[in-house]
């Protein structure tokens, strides 16, 4: 009962081909937060997200949400991978991409209903992309593609959202649309994890931070984690450089 409103990662270890990438990661996050996962290049941010989702094997550790293993709520989890990992030449139009979000995981052969289609268009409208419903996904700009993938995750009616670097290579107005939707989801009680690297936006965007560099350096409210000592420990950057990014000010 005590864990009902929490997500807990315990003793998470991950390696690729025998090389350890994540070592003994432990943290607990309250439900209903917008959480930034930060750390230098190669720190293991994407790896941690994938391991939390069960997309790659872990060496050991557990991930629980509300006291149960996270895999038991797979249908309630939406994941938006890094844009660079998606095959944008795949021939599919925008509205069908969003409609995929409405398919229950094992119901691929179910035909979408009229309701599903309307809901998909509604989700598309939430991200301001309703006029592109019939466009090929590969023809869109980076920001537009990212919005469509967010719409697909909205269509899924998930409780937990995981986005890997959603703001990389996109225009400012798409970034605004996306962060506002993520904040709205948080206000509705959803839990949203975002792998992120632009430190200038951290205080504006997130409630909590998970700061890693292979190991956990800090986890908790932004003002506890976004501090010179911890940031320096993770980034190994000179203090002056961190200050110019607003750390600890
Ligand atoms: N599929 C893979 N096979 C082998 N090594 C990998 C694989 N994916 C990532 N790595 C390595 O694991 C480490 C962590 O990578 P990861 O992509 O998780 O870091 P990251 O913090 O997300 O980095 P970035 O900010 O550069 O995207 C890196 O050293 C990377 O080279």
UniProtKB/TrEMBL annotation:
Single GO MF annotation: ATP binding
CDD domains assigned to the protein according to its UniProt record, in alphabetical order: ABC_Metallic_Cations
The ABC transporter domain, residue ranges: 7-239
Domain of life: Bacteria
Keywords of the record: ATP-binding, Nucleotide-binding, Transport
Pfam family, one: ABC_tran
InterPro entries: AAA+_ATPase, ABC_transporter-like_ATP-bd, ABC_transporter-like_CS, Metal_Ion_Import_ABC, P-loop_NTPase
Keyword Cytoplasm: no
Keyword match Ribonucleoprotein: no
Family: Belongs to the ABC transporter superfamily.
Protein name per the record: Metal ABC transporter ATP-binding protein
